[in-house]
Amino acid sequence: MSLETEVRTQFLRRYHKEPLLITAPGRINLIGEHTDYNEGFVMPAAVDREIIFAIGANESDQFNCYSIDYDTAISFPLSELKAGNQWFNYLMGVVAGFKHRGLNLNGVDCVLGGNIPTGAGMSSSAALCSGFGFGLNKIFANNQSRLELARIGQQAEHEFAGVRCGIMDQYASLFGQKDSALLLDCRSLTHAYVPVNFPDVQIVLIDTKVKHTLASSAYNDRRAACEEGVAAFRKTNASIHSLRDIGMENLEMLRQGVSPDVYTKCRFVVEEIDRTQRAAGFLKSNNVKEFGQLMFKTHWGLSQAYEVSCAESDFLVKMAQEFPDDVLGARQMGGGFGGCIIHLIRSEGIEKYSLKVKEKYVATFKKEPDFYSIALKEGVHLN
Ligand code: GLA
Prior knowledge:
six-stranded mixed β-sheet; binds alpha-D-galactopyranose; Ribosomal Protein S5, domain 2; four-stranded antiparallel β-sheet; 42% helix
């Protein structure tokens, strides 16, 4: 049975009416890590791993939601929205966003199910918020833009899950386009689509299966370090509002008035913003070789300067660099501390390389990595 059929069937069984069906994809990020909350550039894309929602109004103030994956049903009224890190807290966060904006809102029945691995850096939580928000927007005819829905999802992460994330994940899930990445400017919140068309090369994610429990506090710490840097640099130059305002030619300025640690973190961000713009040029000219080299640079920056990597991630990227005939680029993806390593692998070498990785990874870490071949897809949509 397809995921869509399963979700719809469960909904009919529980609520005896025809639902609205919505697909909300997860995302990858080709390059541009930890730049979104610094008003920089990112290059994400929506993918063929998704959450499907069946949803319908229920003429009450109750939200009744059933997750197939967790086999859990939850009911909450509009007046009882709580923070937490369970899947339904994100839905509560989205409801709160509608409520705070004074939008039309009432109870819904909802069934959801998906195939985005959780904790793998593919933004299953962003898909959860984007898809649910899209549903509430449609059902109660609120006419909110996709950008506003992305903001509602981001706010849900901040206020209900306690992660002060940027807007990349929600934006990518909502604005994705088939076979394209988005070059998203996180200052203007506008994007250009760039077709991803590397000949004979596949995007493959290798899941380290590492889920760092402290990842959200470390993420907030990194963001705080960037903000500390900006506050210090502003003292000498009031026109600086974010790390985006500091170019590669001014790297030395970053040393002023901050600790060596804050300097190193800010420097990584400034370099990564620059790298992402250069990478966009290589993507446009299909120069996969140079693009891949920048991915490796990003990884070692994330590992050594930004300090958000782990032994498993470093192992996979190091191994990728040892097989340049098979792998053109690789780096840890998302917030950090494990999750997936995004690889650009020559199509003909994928099988051979995957076997090699599996063998070495199992021998070293005593656990099996997962492999996902990825296709780029349209953002949140009605089925
Ligand atoms: C997480 C956040 C994003 C972004 C990345 C790092 O995925 O949700 O906003 O900051 O980490 O690039």
